[in-house]
């Protein structure tokens, strides 16, 4: 690492992380659109079973809402592992994060068909493996910092 506080190439990490914001904004727009079409009023988070049986739009709203919620569940892990791994491996880390964002687009598009099985694709699987790669890199890097500071 150079004298700079930020390693060369870390801008890619910032760009990849920024792309997650656009992903979330896109998913929010999809959920809002599907909510309007289904007639599910706020503050109801999901359509209930009776509403789902009455209307395919209610089922699709639930699928859109779940895709967005699942993305929100993963975002903290994506941010932490992308930043930590990006401190030593910025291009790899940013690529994994960007791949995860692309996979989430496929995931959401498949989910909102109304058939939840269509949420999973090869792209989704590869991005999941990549996310595990960032987790392993982050663990390796953080372990190194701990060992270095403990002087073990």
UniProtKB/TrEMBL annotation:
Record field: transmembrane: 6-26, 77-102, 122-146
Keyword Transmembrane helix assigned: yes
GO MF, any single term: glutathione transferase activity
Topology in membrane: Multi-pass membrane protein
InterPro entries, alphabetized: MAPEG, MAPEG-like_dom_sf, Membr-assoc_MAPEG
Location(s) in or outside the cell: Membrane
GO cellular component: endoplasmic reticulum; membrane; nuclear envelope
Domain of life (superkingdom): Eukaryota
Gene3D superfamilies (UniProt xref): Membrane associated eicosanoid/glutathione metabolism-like domain
Keywords from the UniProt entry: Membrane, Transmembrane, Transmembrane helix
One Pfam family recorded for the sequence: MAPEG
Name of protein: Microsomal glutathione S-transferase 3
Organism whose genome encodes this protein: Candolleomyces aberdarensis
Lineage: Eukaryota, Fungi, Dikarya, Basidiomycota, Agaricomycotina
């Amino acid at each position: 690492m150079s004298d700079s506080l930020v390693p060369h190439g870390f801008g890619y990490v910032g760009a990849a992380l920024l792309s997650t914001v656009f992903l979330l904004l896109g998913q929010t727009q999809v959920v809002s659109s599907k909510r309007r079409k289904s007639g599910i009023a706020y503050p109801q988070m999901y359509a209930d079973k009776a509403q789902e049986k009455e209307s395919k739009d209610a089922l699709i709203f639930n699928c859109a809402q779940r895709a967005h919620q699942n993305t929100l569940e993963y975002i903290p892990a994506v941010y932490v592992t992308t930043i930590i791994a990006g401190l030593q491996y910025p291009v790899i880390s940013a690529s994994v994060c960007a791949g995860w964002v692309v996979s989430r687009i496929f995931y959401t598009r498949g989910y909102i068909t109304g058939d939840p099985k269509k949420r999973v694709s090869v792209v989704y699987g590869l991005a999941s493996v990549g996310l595990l790669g960032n987790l392993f890199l982050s663990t390796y890097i953080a372990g190194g910092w701990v060992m270095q500071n403990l002087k073990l």
